[in-house]
Amino acid sequence: VQLQASGGGLVQTGGSLRLSCVLSGRAFSSYAMGWFRQAPGKERDLKNREFVAAINWTGGSTYYADSVKGRFTISRDDAKNTVYLQMNSLKPEDTAVYYCASRRSRWVERKPSDYDVWGRGTLVTVSS
């Protein structure tokens, strides 16, 4: 089972980016997906990953961290085995490595430890 994230880059404050994450080796449409982020300089560890957004197996329920609510949108395309994170009105404090994750359940959770498969991460840098 693998996750491959892409779409990160450098953007100015107020700009937008769309992250994509493709899942292979697991029935994508059966599982919830999430996005997390880790600020630069922090040890690469699950405990340092901050919940950003999650979506249930049907796409009918989505959840967001308060810090991104109203600016970020998570969505999924089961035909492409892909989950997206549309990020608008970006701020310097959104700078982080963004990770997508899959959990063996239809329902979402906010804790990193509830997800069993992780992508490598994609860096988002927001300049002021």
Keywords:
seven-stranded mixed β-sheet, 46% strand, single chain, mainly beta, 0% helix
Please provide a written account of the structure.
It is a single chain. With 128 residues, the chain is mainly β. The chain is built from no helices and 11 strands. Strand 7 (72-77) and strand 8 (82-87) form a beta hairpin.
Rg from alpha-carbon coordinates: 13 Å
Largest sheet: 7 strands, mixed
Instruction: Provide the helix percentage.
Output: under 10%
State the total count of DSSP E strands: 11
Mean pLDDT across every amino acid position = 95
Strand composition percent: over 45%
Sketch the topology as an H/E string, one letter per element: EEEEEEEEEEE
Number of helices: 0
How far apart are the termini? 37 Å
Secondary-structure-derived class:
mainly beta
Low-confidence stretches: none
The oligomerization state is single chain
Shape: globular
Write the layout of secondary structure elements.
Layout: E1 2-6, E2 9-12, E3 17-24, E4 33-38, E5 50-55, E6 62-64, E7 72-77, E8 82-87, E9 96-102, E10 117-118, E11 122-127
Parallel strand pairs: 2-11
Antiparallel strand pairs: 1-3, 3-8, 4-5, 4-9, 5-6, 7-8, 9-10, 9-11
Provide a concise account of the structure shown:
This protein has about 130 residues and is mostly beta strands. It contains no helices and 11 strands.
